[in-house]
Amino acid sequence: MANEKICEGDYVLLCLDARRTYMVKVETGKTFHTHKGYLNLDEVVGKDFGGAFRSSLGTEFTALKPSLTDYIMKSSRKTQITYPKDAALIVMFSGIGSGSRVAESGTGTGALTTALAHYVKPNGKVYTYELREEFQKTAEKNLKRANLLDFVELKNGDVTAGIEERDLDAVILDLATPWLVVPQAYTALKPSGIIVSFSPTIDQVVKTTEALKEAGFVFIETVECLMRAMQVERGKTRPHTMMTGHTGYITHARKAVKPLQETPKNSA
Amino acid sequence: MANEKICEGDYVLLCLDARRTYMVKVETGKTFHTHKGYLNLDEVVGKDFGGAFRSSLGTEFTALKPSLTDYIMKSSRKTQITYPKDAALIVMFSGIGSGSRVAESGTGTGALTTALAHYVKPNGKVYTYELREEFQKTAEKNLKRANLLDFVELKNGDVTAGIEERDLDAVILDLATPWLVVPQAYTALKPSGIIVSFSPTIDQVVKTTEALKEAGFVFIETVECLMRAMQVERGKTRPHTMMTGHTGYITHARKAVKPLQETPKNSA
Amino acid sequence: MANEKICEGDYVLLCLDARRTYMVKVETGKTFHTHKGYLNLDEVVGKDFGGAFRSSLGTEFTALKPSLTDYIMKSSRKTQITYPKDAALIVMFSGIGSGSRVAESGTGTGALTTALAHYVKPNGKVYTYELREEFQKTAEKNLKRANLLDFVELKNGDVTAGIEERDLDAVILDLATPWLVVPQAYTALKPSGIIVSFSPTIDQVVKTTEALKEAGFVFIETVECLMRAMQVERGKTRPHTMMTGHTGYITHARKAVKPLQETPKNSA
Amino acid sequence: MANEKICEGDYVLLCLDARRTYMVKVETGKTFHTHKGYLNLDEVVGKDFGGAFRSSLGTEFTALKPSLTDYIMKSSRKTQITYPKDAALIVMFSGIGSGSRVAESGTGTGALTTALAHYVKPNGKVYTYELREEFQKTAEKNLKRANLLDFVELKNGDVTAGIEERDLDAVILDLATPWLVVPQAYTALKPSGIIVSFSPTIDQVVKTTEALKEAGFVFIETVECLMRAMQVERGKTRPHTMMTGHTGYITHARKAVKPLQETPKNSA
What are phi and psi of C201, to 5 degrees? Predict the structure, then answer.
């Protein structure tokens, strides 16, 4: 079987080392400049993904096929580095997979949307709500770059006013006031469906947890995840000095069917 | 659209609260006993997933449709609680999605295999190697329970002797001597393919990292992930007292095409 | 210089390994029983601290002179293992040293009192308040055992009603409602004096921080400390699996002199 | 009792908020410049510690009496922020207090020496070894500033060649090759005395632990400490985004008397 070739218009991840990678669109006649010299992108076209190229200063770059984590980390400079750990846990807790239908709010620059779309493809759909149009445009661009736009419906709307979809497998909240959207999420989810909320502050977590109990969700849990990178080298192995100490708390829960009609409380 | 009904033979997750859940196969004529009384499973058949049921002692359980994390956490008592965080990161770093072809070793009791199969379905495949037959049987049972056996090929073999597949999207290693399998993983992966190794000790990480460099992998990184659960209650919010302090380190890397023939060093 | 000998009535820390240590009072005619056999304490009298002794089953124990951390960890079974890290930081943030005068509330079983007394001796004093007499008795016993009772005044009283001392170097709060004691601590401290509060919940931290700002404290900071033990063995080195995920938050601040009379706000 | 006055020549900690503090020597005729305007230090002389002063731009600074943590954190820009947590644990594990005699190597810029001297005063002594004279000079200056030089003997020497003192209560190692000093530390310590070693890499920890076992130390333990600061504000409370992920591992152990002569192995 032949290796996959890099085509005009493809994105490649030019990798110098684990800390220095660059997402570049391959266009003939263009050059990519770094502090380690420039690369003629003409040379890259038609070569194998995974191949090595030398810059004008002789530094070797590997032209990797971008992976999901690359698309996430290059979605926005602000969310760089820290987001994949949270996206991974949000996706895992949500239970989604190929074919799932999931609502998300807000879209932001589409980092988490990218992860959700990656995992529901090819038969599922992500309905993502965002009020700010400039964010939507960035998200659309990022999703297109990752070839995931077909699995996403970008919606300009306010989820506190309602989620239009029904029988969803999961609802993902990453907005300032998640507790206000909990009732709408309950309505939009199918029974036993999963809600996952990501919030930076404790106060958001407490309000959201209270709203979840009130709305009829069960199996409510909140976790935080600390990811620490290691410097691995024989005789010098140690954790890196600086790390991200906090991004946000992840709260997840499942929709229970209410009310409890089969066995009334007074007859138990 | 009608809610999904619980059928004879289905598995349900009986949920008392976030810390006490039970994976139960629904069979008519059987009862499920807990310290909070017993449930007649006859009553559950034909009801909605997400519905509530009372035990003989009046305690309310919710009968949830099991999610991926439930199948992972109930795969083996030993890996309970701690595994989903690592499975989530391993999956994310591996870049796999629907349609991916991935090799894994060792299978163990199939917790990670379950996660991999969940994400590659319906068109992908997990080729999982295990030497110990008794583990394979447990894994097979766990995968069948999660309806994921169709997407897995359980192989009885020693990956240090070779991985039979070629052009794989990812290779996942969770065994005692990952460094010995790195050359085989290189051969089995397609260019730019991803290897992820999970190891409890620093020494394994160092040896594996050295083997990855030697074999021609790039973008090599090792992280560890600490997940801490919160007790959320207005006026009493705090992290839980006990946590899992360590499960293992996750090392991931990507296959670069070697040798670097296009631009010889002396002409650079 | 001769080694220090173990005398009748001394406490020794019998050490089997880092995880199994026993605080024992040396009394002639008594034996100390463990699952590894018994030791005749007669044999220990007159020997050097640091010496090794064999149990009836041949297991070797080292009879160490108890250190501060031993007295803290053996003060109460409930605070075992986790407390020294917090005591260390509380002491460090408080700025106390030999000669310092410090108030503490509540005394509890005296674990933190033991640390405070250790560091203010021989010329300083710890004024420790406790409402529950049974705790006071345990604390007194623990302090006596550690030879630190002379540097402590055990007071039966309610610090929310007032701290009797004045011009204190530090006030240490380890009670359910620290915010109620902040005004009393302000009055009791000398200018630039330090308050340190230890609380398990976020809500306590928020209320205490607000009370500190209101009372005239500055340089207010809250931290939490996670301590993780390592299993160190060539070829098998890794963090231990279980760890204490949370004990409490440490909030510290310093008393600023108020009001700001020298330069009235309207003339600035 | 009168408040303590700020005198010519004293150091004050000018505090703008918890993140912006400045250690300043009070000298008449001098001004202290910040981005928030300047302060005439003349105004500060004769005032109370803890008093507030306004800069030329109207910003209020509190002139605090420097505490131990301030001296540590201002000892060297490189060790700022992260060191007090480690100094606190090193001191606590070492068991030292007023009157203790302790050796340290290397002195560095004296941050840890400052902590050790603070806790052994007024009757104890810190013998601190350093090979590089320029570091010794900085350390001497830092110790003098903290009024702790009287309790320290700065020694220019190589501890791998030997520690001159005997019957020490503790030996503290913070150097590149602690395992080479372990035999010397054993000789210098009194029985049951404590050694504490601080090292950034796992490899140092493994070698040191092996050397400790070989030399006759017991109760050997290695820990790492993660300290995370909180942003505390009602409705917005959360951990800070960035934290120090790693400084070093702390290994501590106690000297057992060897050989085990009283009860030969073959007669046990």
Answer: -110, 155
- The residue type at A103: A
A235 contacts D203? CB cut-off 8 A: yes
d(CA B34, CA D268): 51
For A177, other C-beta atoms within 10 Å of its C-beta total 15
Question: Looking at beta carbons, which residues of chain C come within 8 Å of B243?
Answer: 242-246
Residues of chain D in contact with residue C205, where contact means CB-CB under 8 angstroms, are 230, 232, 237
Please check whether residue A201 touches D, CB under 8 A. yes
Q: Which residue has the tokens 């009001």?
A: C259
User: Cβ B84–A91 below 8 Å, yes or no?
Assistant: no
Contacts D234 to A, Cβ<8 Å: 203
- May I ask the CATH class of domain A11-66? alpha beta
Q: Which residue pairs from A145-151 have beta carbons closer than 8 angstroms and sit at least 24 positions apart in sequence?
A: A145/A11, A145/A25, A145/A71, A146/A66, A146/A68, A146/A71, A146/A114, A146/A117, A146/A118, A148/A71, A148/A114, A148/A117, A148/A118, A148/A121, A149/A117, A150/A121, A151/A117, A151/A120, A151/A121, A151/A122, A151/A124, A151/A125, A151/A126
Mind giving me the DSSP string for A198-252? EESSHHHHHHHHHHHHHHTEEEEEEEEEEEEEEE--TT--EE-SEEE----EEEE
For C135-191, write each residue's pLDDT tens digit: 999 999 999 999 999 999 999 999 999 999 999 999 999 999 999 999 999 999 999
Contact A109, A75 (CB under 8 A): yes
Three-state SS letters, C186-246: HHHEEEEEEEEEEECCHHHHHHHHHHHHHHCEEEEEEEEEEEEEEECCCCCCEECCEEECC
Domain C69-255: assigned CATH number: 3.40.50.150
From-to residues of CATH 3.40.50.150 in chain B: 69-255
Its pTM stands at 0.93
DSSP C96: -
Q: What is the dihedral of CA B17, B20, B26, B31, to 10 degrees?
A: -100
Q: Model confidence over C4-59: pLDDT tens digits?
A: 899 999 999 999 988 899 999 999 999 999 889 999 999 999 999 999 999 999 99
Which residues of chain D are in CATH 3.10.330.20 domains?
Answer: 11-66
Contact indicator for C202, C173 with CB cutoff of 8 Å: no
H or E segment to which residue B181 belongs: none
Q: Do residues D257 and D191 lie in contact, with contact meaning Cβ atoms separated by under 8 Å?
A: yes
Residues comprising chain A, all counted: 268
- Residue B8: CB atoms within 10 Å: 13
Which amino acid makes up residue C153?
A: E
Are A242 and D242 within 8 A, CB to CB?
yes
Inter-chain CB pairs, B–C, below 8 Å: 61
D122 in reach of chain A (CB within 8 A): no
Q: How far apart are CA B171 and CA B193, in angstroms?
A: 8
User: Does residue B235 belong to the interface with chain C, where contact is any CB pair within 8 Å?
Assistant: yes
Chain D nearest-CA distance from C5, in A, is: 10
pLDDT in tens, C90-140: 999 999 999 999 999 999 999 999 999 999 999 999 999 999 999 999 999
